Amino acid sequence: MKYLIIITLLFSSLFSLNLNNNNLKQKLAEDKCSKIINFSEKQIEYIVSSYIWGKPYGLENVLPAIAWQESCAGLYKINVYDPSAGLFHAYIPSVMARHSSLKNNKYNRNKVAQMLINDDLLSASEAIEELKFWENYYKQNKNSYKTLSIEELMIMSYNRGNRWHKSYKNKKSAKKYLKEVEYKMKQVKKFIKKYDIKSEINKILN
User: Fold this and answer.
1) Which of 46, 49, 68, 185 is deepest in the core (most CB within 10 A)?
2) Which of 38, 62, 43 is nearest to 128 (CA)?
3) CA distance readout (Å), 20 to 13, 24, 74
4) Residue 43 near residue 72 (C-beta atoms within 8 A)
């Protein structure tokens, strides 16, 4: 009887596993990224948190838009291709370079990636540091990039570093990224205004 129960449980598990595999395409096809209206409560929480984290640095619209752009507001916190990780997909080589006391090896890179996934405040801190680095860089070199604002340049470099300065392909990609983030920034502004979240946030901050 005991073995019969075990076999039954095994078959039940296998059946469930097959059902889950069959639902994978359906889950991937679910549209939870294109509009805030489709966001889960957790995704909304990430947008509002990012707004709060970014506000003291003048990034209250940029930071949530990047969270939306990079991780679908927390749904997908890793990109193995880049490699990047966390709510804002911090670029692992840049994080390692900023923390030069860490030995840059496979173990530490994996460890840092997992820390960024687990710790949203750490992820926000790294994203803000990266954005402020590029903001300061372009303030000092504005004459070389007169056609774009500091904010636009900063966002492009969050995505492509300084690689877009030298490569048409990277520049095209960075401009596409900028356009997508700017669209999301507008949506974040509308969302914050529509639901009067700004006044509630100001109460918390003040």
Assistant:
1) 68
2) 62
3) 10, 6, 22
4) yes
Structure tokens at 184: 């999301």
The predicted model scores a pTM of: 0.83
Give the length of the chain: 206
Residue 39 half-sphere exposure toward CB, CA atoms < 13 A: 22
pLDDT of residue 14: 43
The reported pLDDT for the residue numbered 30 is: 59
Whole-number mean pLDDT of the chain? 87
Residue 15, token pair as written in the block: 């059946």
Amino acid letter, residue 108: N
Residue 140, token pair as written in the block: 């000092």
The three-state secondary structure class of 35 is: coil
Name the phi and psi angles at 78, rounded to 5: -145, 145
Cα 165 to the center of its chain, rounded Å: 23
